[in-house]
Amino acid sequence: EPEVTQTPSHQVTQMGQEVILRCVPISNHLYFYWYRQILGQKVEFLVSFYNNEISEKSEIFDDQFSVERPDGSNFTLKIRSTKLEDSAMYFCASSDRPEPQHFGDGTRLSIL
Amino acid sequence: KNEVEQSPQNLTAQEGEFITINCSYSVGISALHWLQQHPGGGIVSLFMLSSGKKKHGRLIATINIQEKHSSLHITASHPRDSAVYICAVVIIGGSQGNLIFGKGTKLSVKP
């Protein structure tokens, strides 16, 4: 069964550094999403992406964050100048319809 | 404020038991999702429903829009069902991907 793949599984970064989280969605999917889960807290929506542009973003998704599809297959989340509070599990999801269907296993981001 | 409340927070069951996890929400919604989060952290979508009832294998999800309540049932539970079960809603007028998540119910099924 096709799946959403996220790399790396664990990323450790110094505070203030830029980090790029990568996702390979299922190949025929058109809708993409990023969510995050701070340890011990509930999952939160970050951003949805369709037709090569952001369709909706949450208050969390400020100027520090950006998303893109650099090569038509990967879907990336970039966090500029990371902060300690960016430490979380980040989930990518993709779908062939407007609601998220398939989630990746997540990237655990640790900011030191 | 918590727009999505789940109960119980933790649930321990013996293998074979019938399990019910509840989700209540305080806002008008267009859809509700049930998700399963594995011990390793990965998330699997189980159901999306906007009315009535859906069944997949041993899992059944129901929703009562008037009462703002949904339940996830697991029949003949098995240790491999051990996971965190998360309810998430789409607020009316919101985009389908902008889910409001509950805190999850941690289920442990003992052999």
Task: Using the CA coordinates, give the radius of gyration of chain B.
Answer: 13 Å
The main β sheet of chain B shows up as: 6 strands, mixed
Global structural class of chain B: mainly beta
State mean pLDDT of chain B (0 to 100 scale).
Answer: 95
Strand fraction of chain A: over 45%
Write down the overall mean pLDDT of chain A: 94
In quaternary terms, these chains amount to: heterodimer
Which range best describes the helical content of chain B: under 10%, 10-25%, 25-40%, 40-55%, 55-70% or over 70%? under 10%
**Biggest sheet of chain A: strands, sense, closure?**
7 strands, mixed
Name the poorly predicted regions of chain A. Answer: none
Q: Proportion of β residues of chain B?
A: over 45%
Topology of chain B as a string of helices (H) and strands (E): EEEEEEEEEEE
Distance from first to last alpha carbon of chain B: 37 Å
**How many DSSP H or I helices of chain A?**
0
What's the total number of strands of chain B?
11
Tally of contiguous helical segments of chain B:
0
Shape annotation of chain B: globular
Compose a concise summary of this entry:
The complex is a heterodimer of chains A (112) and B (111). Chain A is mainly beta and 112 residues long. Chain A has no helices and eleven strands.
List the topology elements.
The complex is a heterodimer of chains A (112) and B (111).
Chain A: E1 5-7, E2 10-13, E3 19-24, E4 31-37, E5 43-50, E6 53-57, E7 65-68, E8 75-79, E9 88-95, E10 102-103, E11 107-111
Chain B: E1 4-7, E2 10-14, E3 19-25, E4 29-37, E5 43-49, E6 52-56, E7 59-64, E8 69-74, E9 83-91, E10 99-101, E11 105-110
Parallel strand pairs in B: 2-11
Antiparallel strand pairs in B: 1-3, 3-8, 4-5, 4-9, 6-7, 7-8, 9-10, 9-11
